[in-house]
Specification:
Helix Hairpins, two-stranded antiparallel sheet, alpha/beta, single chain, 6-stranded parallel beta sheet, globular
Length: 300
Amino acid sequence: MSKKLVTVLGPTAVGKTKFAVQLANKFNGEIISADSRQVYKRMDIGTGKDLSDYFINDTKINYHLIDIVEPSDEFNLFGFTRDFNKAYDIISENRTRPFLVGGTALYIHSILKNYSLDRANFNAQRIQELEKLSDEELKSILSSISQNLHNTTDLLERKRIINAILIAESRKDGNDYEDSKFEHLVIGINDEKDVIKKRITSRLKTRLSKGLIEEVKNLLNEEITHEKLKFFGLEYKFISLHLSGELNYNDMYQKLNSAIHHFAKRQMTWFRKMEREGIKINWMKNHEIDKASELVGGFF
């Protein structure tokens, strides 16, 4: 029997999690999160964990790769692929069905294309070598060995540049992908641009009112540095700049809101790139659960 995987992807604020949980509930499934920040503990509001979404009529849908890493620790693509495979094996042992869900395009792409990462050079010596270089030298290295792999956010923070180089160097010999281990069904959730824009802005206001700034303050009290918060990006980056006195509240809100909108555009750029590579994405809106159920029923 071939290994099968349903993936639910899409830009931020389209309702991917609720949609996928409905499918998992209907088809005896479990969720594997593909979110690069939800892996971190106590980073809840800013990452939009919304764990209540995993309950349907008091029934909890099991999830994996959420709250597995301390904010002080490092987590990267290599760790994700390793932990994804562990989660998939657990789901197989449970005789349930796997649903990969999220918006971190690189993580999703690594599974759909089965990246060869066994050679990834995440050792301390190589990291030390790279840390001695300037930002411009690092960007030059990354550009020379990786044209399309990295997110554009990789070029915004020093640690992201170094991580992207380590990943790209592990794949520069041309043996980028192995044969896929899975039979895939990919469902994409999207909506009109104006609808997504309104959801992003409304959601940000809600998160700020529910204690997002306090969440970042608590991380700082744990001695998570401002530098590390900037590495996490978006909410954590801009609120860090606000708390350090570099941005007033209004500027923080405006810049953060704008950054999230740009992030959604970059996500869609990634997903369109996947389609150009031959990955079929079945696009639909978040109310079209019956349409998705028909696809999933035929797939399994």
